[in-house]
Amino acid sequence: MRKFLTKTILTLVLLTILYIPTYCVMFMLMYTTKEPATEYLRTTEIKFNEIDEYKDIDILFVGSSHSSRSFDPRIFSQHNLKTFNIGTLSQTCMQSWFIIDRYIDSLNPKCVIIDLYPDLMNTYGEESAIDFINSDFDHDLAAWEWTKLKMSMCTKNTNVINEWIYSFFRRHILRHKNQRQTFIGNEIHICHDKYIRSGFVEKDMKYYDLKPDYRIDTTCRCNAMQMMFLNKTVELLKKRDINYLLVEAPVPSVLYKSYDNHEQYSAKISEYGTFIDYNTRITLNDSLDFYDSHHLNQNGVVKYDSLIIRDLYELKYISSVKQN
Amino acid sequence: MLFNSFEFAIFLPITFILYWLFNRNLKLQNAFIVAISYLFYGWWDWRFLILIAFTTFCSYTSGILIDKANRKSQNKKAKIISAANITINLLILGVFKYYNFFVTSLADAFSAFGITLETTTLSIILPVGISFYTFQALSYSIDVYRHKIEATHDIIAFFAFVSFFPQLVAGPIERATNLLPQFTQKRSFDYSTAVDGCRQILWGLFKKIVVAGNCATTCNHIFATYTDQPASVLMVGALLFTFQIYGDFSGYSDIAIGTAKLFGIKLMRNFNIPYFSRDIAEFWRRWHISLTTWFRDYIYIPLGGSRVSKAKVVRNTLIIFLLSGLWHGANWTFVVWGAYHALLFLPLILLGKNRKYTHTIAEGKHFPSIKEFAMMLITFLLVVIGWIFFRAETIGDAWHYICGLCSLNIFKAPYLFFTSRKNSAFVIIMLAIEWWQRSKEHGLGELQTSLKRPISRYILYFVLFFSILAFQTSDSIQFLYFQF
Prior knowledge:
Chain A is an alpha/beta fold. In chain A, 45% of the residues lie in helices and 10% in strands.
């Protein structure tokens, strides 16, 4: 028995040690252009490279692209509110927790708005983890690598862990870096996307053609891992006496109506704090206020942000709102 | 819990060590098996543990009662108890798996005559592996009734027999005559069996994660868009599903058998290189052996088997193939799949040629003869066509898919050829290893005799280990046979 255990462990260690360099070399040879394409606006990378410039903000936004493409700092600054939006591509509660835990001291927000998109509540955050893994950050490289590794492990997905191994090799052994994108004024403009300082991503004005997405599952489900991270986030904010609001950004009515158990979902989320489903608070036009089946265009952003500012004022989460 | 999950990678070594620590006390060891098996199953949905416990308890009690009646020569009483147990188990299976199917089929049948039936379907989840453990529990009470085995009074051993986690959710469907005595005897750790178990797990993971997972990605796309695809692509789709289902199910069986070996338990072989069969009868002796022999022993032979009139042979053959189809799922596509195989099998059994090929192909040779190769190829293609019915959502879809195949552009190189190069490479590796090891119990069986130098063995382990970790897809996760 002892011989078997020793031999099995040694074999597994040996195979793993051999696996890592073999994987890196093989994929380096197979995919010489594995770095993200330069024409792609790497908003996550830009966002976390500018985050260190922000201290003592009023509102911190977290969540998926529903957050990063909905909360425009220019609208909030009209109300003397200093904000930062750390919403990223398909960000789930798991990633949100890692980021909040890391930046809560330096950003020191008065209020945190957590966007919860139902379709991501039953995932393990694979897409978002890959987004973080492929981003090159300028500061705290060791801490970032550790955060990325933790995110990868939480996904329990071998492909994501492989992605981390290769990106580590690419960054630290091959010394390959993504091409830097520089601000022109307060913006970085690539293709149809515009990154605005403070973390907002604006799409060129476009209207939704009302073509619905193909969706397999129309039931809102929340897996235990995401709920655990949401709970950890909420506990952290409560411990620090920071106001937080759980929100669901408006989506086209065709998508919203496709959920068959949204009421139960809302009730479940409400157990973690004040939850506002803005699909029931605001009436938007599916075509005129959205640019695709998920995201608000600038018309919708203005309407949504104005309403959320009013709500935050009414909830007394912020006190320095200028009334228009 | 899935065999290819992180949870299982932690679960297995912990339970393995604890299990052998309890080795001095058989009852404690069996109780530990029951506990970890229920944990393994409950990881998916703990509510359905009640169902397994109920099924197990019914079979355990009926076994004792049947045995008692047998001893007193009360044949009628034994028959009634056995029939009651079979009815209860089949009722549970029927409600959870077939109720909605039969209700909607009945309503459809009536609507064809212009009669509208008011029907109510149940909104229930299909318990994972219900067909597997129900059949296993049933085989015990039937064997007790037939005096093949004595009823056990050791309730813990019996619960361990029904719920033994490696084979609980997707087989092999074990017989009480083979598995139950292993839970009533003291088990000892055997180094070479454990090593063989590890090799079999590695081989199973390769088939499941690498072969089935990668084939599934392309295959799912082709089946979802089959109306827009040329014949050559449809052929690729059918071939990929053929290897997907084999990699998926035989991979699961290999992991299950290998895991059981680590616990000192020997499970029956479930697959024996079925795609190297020379006729359909041989295919069915090599494909899902535990289910095929179950139907043979508990339905076909009691009906008279092949030692009755030709008309009855036809009836018996049709019954077991149709039931086998229906066992796989509550859909007419599975019934048609069963009927298709029955039609291929019937000429062989009627001509008395169904046991022509019982030995391994090309025994003692490197390659098959041209005749053997041609027979293998024809059998394989017939099986591929059958899988289209198995994979399609409806019979109509399957029919249109087959019609789509009947086109001259089947000879054009499919545009998906280059994107499925990786799949082809994995399939070729799998087939090559299985051919090379065809006389062994599994792809990596008795490897020390096939590859005498340790370095060669370690290179092979590394290739498989590397492929498993590097070439996983999102389709590698779920097991197809869980739905049955």
